[in-house]
Amino acid sequence: MDKSETVDCLEKNMNGKKNFKRAWRDEDDKKSNKEQRKLLKQKYVGIVGKPKWAEITTDQSKKVLLDDEDEDLDLLKYSGNLARTKKGVNLAKGLIGIKKLHNLNLSTSSCGKIVKSVEFHPTSSLALIAGISGRASIVQVDGFKNDKLQSIKFQKFAIDCAHFTVDGKQFVAGSRTQRNFYCYDLMEGRSMFVPVHHNIGQTRMDNFCMSPDGKLIASCGKYGEIHLFTAKSKEWITTLKMNGAANSLTFTNDGKRMYSFGENGEIFEWDMNSRTCIKKFMDDGCLQGTSLALSGDNQYLAAGSSSGVVNLYKLPCDVNPKPDKTILNLLTTVSKLSFNKSSDILAMVSNQKNDAIKLLHVPSKTVFSNFPTTSDNVGKVNCIDFSPNGGYLGLSNNKSEALLYRLTHFKNY
Fold it and tell me: Which Gene3D superfamilies match (predicted)?
């Protein structure tokens, strides 16, 4: 959508004053901002739905078959509200039903050679793709066309990390070369430049996460600092401090606890009400911690290290916990860990080696043996995400690709 490439930039200072200026200008674009936003909002709302676009419904009338001849692709093509997953047959270990579909960025290849972020929208069948070119795209996920709905260019801003807000109305983009970050409003078609005051010590925004309660943005800083911002106004609140550099953060599903992991191999547990560390322990056998993930049911904490080892801990942990399972299938630094929403699959990734991705069957603590295969050729994976009900798996890599897979055990999107 070329007309969406012209983006407004809202710059808000610490005194609350607002100054509007363009992030960049398309010389071919002669339409006014007001008219442009109106057209964008009409198209977005027409696809996503209004006013209850952010609610999950059980209305099965909105269920559309992607392919009548293939029951395994019986997903929700509708881009508005998603149906809830009904509890069905338990996922079996050994082999996983998985199909390669057309790439998520089939209709847009402008995110750069290295695609750093891919994430599914929390309530609609949309996905966010972003990369080092400074461009972020919103696509409609159907597994076939994956049409681009919107593309936003952030001038001189290589995107290293991007996440939807919990309500799905915005996304936040950060870069390792910039301390400031951007927030883009999907409904208004407007970007907000978020300045960060130099006094807080923030030097980059390439590693951050959103709290599931929709209140906080937590970002890894330098020297063990963890910077907290409000998810609503994007203003800095406070800075927490741990031993050694913080390399990974994750929240419990209610946002009341946060775990941090860093270069000294220690895992810190934080109470987010008091903003204090209530517990810390050494990851078993770890020299340098690189990645953390918490299962959606708060039952397991996965910790990945620079040696490629992933330890799976049963929660709650005591002072000196031993892993419930140690997974040794990766040989290089664990860069990403991600549980699916039903907490029965753990994806483990290293971005230092081609095809270094494994899917763990959590109930049996065994790795699925049929993914990836030699023909998958997934490259070096930078980011991984599961769709809200587990039907899709998305991967971004260093070959300009955002790969899409169908997990056939899960019948809904």
Answer: YVTN repeat-like/Quinoprotein amine dehydrogenase
